[in-house]
Amino acid sequence: MRFVEVSPEELQNLRPALSLLERVNHASSSEMANYTIYGICTKPELLEDAEETVFWDDEDEETKTKLSVIALAVPMSSDFLYYLTGSGLKVRGLTFAYFEGEGNGDRTDEFGAKVRDLVSLDDFQHLAIADGDVWLGDFLQKHGSGGEHGLPEAPHEEVERDSEATLNAVPKPEDIHPPAAPPAAPKASSLHYEGLEDWFK
């Protein structure tokens, strides 16, 4: 099984037990260290952050991909769950998956240290738990395309790389281009799911 889908209530109920396990068996050395929360997000601020991140991280990219949905990977810990269920968790340093363009598959990237926006459980439409972020693209393919979110947006906006990019740039009609770059291979990770589903019985 690649990931186990959960509800916000199940994650909230998991936090006290996770806190106890971390006290007994430190998370950094336990088998739970790689478990990750997946979430489908359409929050406008995070989509804009992701667009900026993708554009500036790819030196060969000359156009900015317009995103309509991303999948976010959050390392599972009692502290992270505390912020996710409360005032929100800063997304800087977190991995996200996105559609490069219609028909071009998905890719992953990581929010930089300058990103200050927050995410909470209320910002997610679908949630799951997995062992690492290797299946994040599959999770995005399942819940991020079609259905209530529609197909990923294909239009791109042209941005001068030597000028200051803004999160609120509006594309001009003459600057619309189809996507071209191929998808990147997902990161590898080991999977150890014994006992994971028992948490939710």
Give a description of the structure:
Helix 1 packs antiparallel against helix 3. This protein has 201 residues and is α+β, with helices and mostly antiparallel strands. The longest helix has 17 residues, at 8-24. It has a 6-stranded antiparallel sheet, with helices on both faces. Strands 3-10 form a two-stranded antiparallel sheet. The protein has a two-stranded antiparallel sheet with strand order 5-8. The model is unreliable at 147-159, 161-171, 173-178 and 183-197 (pLDDT under 50). It has helices at residues 8-24, 44-57, 78-84, 136-143; strands at residues 4-6, 35-41, 63-65, 70-75, 89-90, 95-99, 106-110, 118-119, 124-131, 156-158. 23% of the residues lie in helices and 22% in strands. The chain is globular, with a radius of gyration of 18 Å. The two termini are 16 Å apart. The protein has one domain.
Give a short synopsis of this structure.
With 201 residues, this protein is α+β, with helices and mostly antiparallel strands. Helix content is 23%, strand content 22%.
Descriptive keywords:
201 residues; alpha+beta; six-stranded antiparallel sheet; two-stranded antiparallel ribbon; 4 helices; 22% strand
Number of DSSP helical runs: 4
Q: Residue-averaged pLDDT, rounded?
A: 76
Oligomeric description of these chains: single chain
Tally of extended strands? 10
Structure class: alpha+beta
**Total domain modules:** 1
Poorly predicted sequence stretches spanning 5 or more consecutive residues: 147-159, 161-171, 173-178, 183-197
Radius of gyration: 18 Å
Main sheet: strands, sense, barrel: 6 strands, antiparallel
How do the strands of the widest beta sheet line up side by side?
1-9-2-4-6-7
| Beta-strand percent range | 15-25%
